[in-house]
Amino acid sequence: MSTISRNPFTGETFAEYPFDTPEGIEQALARTAAAAARWRQATVEARAAGLERLGAVLRERKEELATMMTREMGKPIAQARAEVEKCAFLCDWTAENGPKFLEPKIVEVDKGKARQEFRPLGTILAVMPWNFPLWQVLRGAVGVLLAGNTYVLKHAPNVMGCAYLLRDAVAAAGLPEGVFEVVNTDAEGVSRMIVDPRTAAVAVTGSVRAGSAIAAQAGAALKKSIMELGGADPFIVLADADLDAAVRSAVIGRYQNVGQICLAAKRIIVEQPIAAEFEKRFVAAVKALKIGDPMQDDVYIGPMARYDLRDELHRQVEKSVAEGARLLIGGHKLEGVGNFYAPTVLADVRPDMTAFDEELFGPVASLIVARDADHAVELANDSDFGLGGTIWSGDIDKANRMAAQIETGSVFINGDIATDPRLTVGGVKKSGFGRELSSFGLHEVCNIQTVWIDRR
Questions:
Q1: Catalytic residue, candidates 91, 162, 262, 446
Q2: Annotation says 262 is catalytic
Q3: In the chain, which end has fewer C-beta atoms inside a 10 angstrom radius, N or C?
């Protein structure tokens, strides 16, 4: 068996990668286990220096990495280059700031002195998605490596070219053999790696279905797991908001990466007094987005990554319209070569509609009208998901009070949805558990060990 890289713009299959054999998986686990024993003994400063070199390699190879992303999953090339730069910044920031998060914490106790040490767990198995082929991997891997762990990547089957280029970049940065391994396998192979005693923990970014299955296996094996499983994020616009800025941010938040983002403006909830005006401006802005060849610098909407996902998105749109949603623009596959779906806006979306309840992973926005701020919070929380949320308001105190009521891992006030190395990312409810990035994400992949020295 094998995986293929298929260009979603041309339909061309341009690479095929065979699955690793059971013997190949065994060898990868053996290498990473051996590396873990050595890597944990390296100083934090030495590990940080390796990450700094990795950031430099990523910048040197930016065009190659960005082009592979665009060819494999259709990401517009300007956004692909930005992803590489963001990964390089992550390496730089973690190398500079991460070591202090791993310093022992001294605690005075009644009969002596104690300290909290941050030790490595061992080998972390990561099952990663295709929508950010570099960022999703390095968002977890950089902290894993700094903490002294080793990392085994099982990447999405349609972006294995990106996986192998990233492995090559790690090697070029001079990190030891075995600290970053790539395995090409199926669900059965993942299951074998989860139960293998050399695997200490599992990290997943993906669908609820995949995450719940892997979390169940990890739990049965008493392995720690970190899950980021997507969402149906609310994007609230109150009547006192800066409307032009809110529209611009909503368009970016919904249509960047062709709408294939977990942390994104999925359900746009607008307070009733400005709903009609917001709708008019939003539709005009969406119509202005350039669609086309993702290798062109000025294209914002490229093809969707996979043909089956486009079919599923179209099914969700048609079902939502049948349930009473009003189709403002789009709502169809674009004819001709390329896996394109027309940028779509649905209005009059209400709870219990498909466009409200399900995650729409593509260039489709759902507009929802709220009576007032309290109703907006109620609508925001009426979801099985809890990854991120956004509030636009001219009253910061009110926005902060609302943020405290919203059941998500992140809330953005008067700004674009984003992830940043300095802040955690992760969710609640069906969006998963655990955190990545910042000091909290770093500590997630540590054995937080208590060392207590009695004065007697």
A1: 262
A2: yes
A3: C
272 with 369: CB under 8 angstroms? yes
| Identity at 217, one-letter amino acid code | Q
d(CA 281, CA 297): 25
For residue 43 the two structure tokens come to 């100083």
- Report yes or no on whether pTM surpasses 0.85: yes
Short-list 193, 154, 191, 151, CA closest to 170: 151
In degrees, rounded to 5, the angle at the alpha carbon of residue 378 between the alpha carbons of residues 372 and 382 is 145
Check if 91 is active-site: no
Domains annotated on the chain, with CATH: 2-229+431-454 (3.40.605.10), 234-420 (3.40.309.10)
Tokens of 102: 């791993």
pLDDT per residue as tens digits for the range 12-26: 999 999 999 999 999
Region class of 426: left (phi > 0), else alpha (psi between -120 and 50), else beta: left
Catalytic residue selected from 72, 83, 181, 228: 228
Q: For 197-255, what is each residue's pLDDT tens digit?
A: 999 999 999 999 999 999 999 999 999 999 999 899 999 999 999 999 999 999 999 99
Give the full edge-to-edge strand order of the sheet including 432-433: 180-182, 150-154, 123-127, 199-205, 224-228, 432-433
- Residue pair 394/403 in contact by the 8 Å Cβ criterion: no
Residue type, position 202, single letter: V
